[in-house]
TrEMBL record:
Highest taxon of source: Bacteria
Protein name (Swiss-Prot/TrEMBL): Bacterial sensory transduction regulator
Length: 130
């Protein structure tokens, strides 16, 4: 898989796509405990030449949590991805170059980032908003 189009085709066939735009897909991943997590899969272009895919999923609003406590938890437990502020939301995100991307190099981080965000959301907000 080396192009955005290839990745989009794979995601459409494999996941519950709830929004589909040219450079962005939103996917709902459901869990056995009836919780779900929405993840944004977006095409990014680095230096106007290299295509990357960014996986980002919100897990809390900044005003809902103690930021220092959340960042400490992420630092101690998260293997893939990092925390970022996007507007009023805290997200976990991870980026990968598309060139020569193998499917497991996408699926594994997607599952890790999304699952980790789901756990953080439950731990820090007690809700299932995203």
């Amino acid at each position: 898989m080396a192009t955005w189009g290839d990745l989009v085709a794979y995601v459409r066939a494999s996941y519950d796509v709830i929004r589909d735009e040219d450079d962005e897909l939103r996917v709902r991943i459901s869990y056995d405990d009836r919780r779900a997590q929405v993840v944004v899969i977006a095409r990014e272009v680095l230096d106007r030449k290299e295509e990357w895919v960014q996986i980002a999923t919100p897990f809390a609003r900044i005003d809902q949590v103690d930021l220092q406590e959340v960042l400490a938890e992420i630092g101690n437990t998260i293997v893939v991805g990092g925390a970022a502020l996007m507007g009023e939301h805290l997200v976990l995100r991870h980026s990968l170059p598309l060139v020569n991307l193998d499917i497991n190099e996408f699926v594994d981080p997607l599952e890790l980032v999304t699952g980790s965000a789901e756990l953080l959301e439950e731990q820090f907000t007690g809700r299932d908003d995203y």
